[in-house]
Amino acid sequence: MRAAAMQTTIYRTPVFRQFFVFLSWLGLGLGGWKIEGTAPKEDKYVLIAAPHTTNWDFPLMVAMAFMLRFEIYWMGKDTLFMGPAGPVMRWFGGIPINRSQSNNIVQSTIAAFNSHDHLIVIIPPEGSRSKVKQWKSGFYHIAHGAGVPIALGYLDFRRKVGGFGPTFYPTGEQDKDIKKIQSFYKDIKGKYPHKAAALD
Predict the structure, then answer these.
(1) Which of 36, 39, 40, 143 could be cross-linked to 163 through a Cys-Cys bond (beta carbons 3.0 to 4.6 Å apart)?
(2) This prediction's pTM
């Protein structure tokens, strides 16, 4: 059975892709940002992005995706996709979600992983750039349910470095696993550290 095709994104649009690779290289260089770490070799994985404390996280994330030459999909609240901005957001890999239907989001994302040969979905575990008390667990349920690993992505504004930490394979012991994942982020600072969720 042939895998289903995801929406066409800018990462697979030849002329625009080349332009944005150059623009990303220029922008990251002028901003003093560097990329470190290695992306997972797996064709499918959940890429968590933390800490998420500012709108600047999005353009930096997209720029690094262009530089690393891979296609990403990300989840955003459905209000971001209203009006003329909708097609543009989808072109950049956006998938609109209704936060009041969290269980449906988990199941539909698992189904997407099961029906595609290649898929990288970015999920900020804090769920919002606003101040939150703790991480949401949806990213974990998606990865475990789909049988895919979790890549630990980050943006450290203190060092101006973004990239990948180790790849984590869920064991099914949610609380223990999330604590292990969070331990990696202890010393990573977002643009506004006071907005980041407390890591136990």
Answers:
(1) 36
(2) 0.82
Instruction: Count CA atoms within 13 Å of residue 142 on its CB side.
Output: 30
Question: Look-up: residue for tokens 């199941």?
Answer: 107
CA angle 52, 196, 140 (to 5 degrees): 65
The structural domains of the chain, with segments of one domain joined by +, span 10-195
Average pLDDT, the chain: 85
In sequence order, what DSSP letters do the residues of 70-95 get, joined into one string? ---EEEEEGGGGSTTHHHHHHHTTEE
Residue 28 has pLDDT above 50, yes or no: yes
The mean pLDDT of 129-156, rounded to a whole number, is 88
Tally DSSP H helices, then E strands, for the chain: 6, 7
Instruction: Render 17-49 in DSSP notation, one character per residue.
Output: HHHHHHHHHHHHHHHT-EEES---SSSEEEEEE
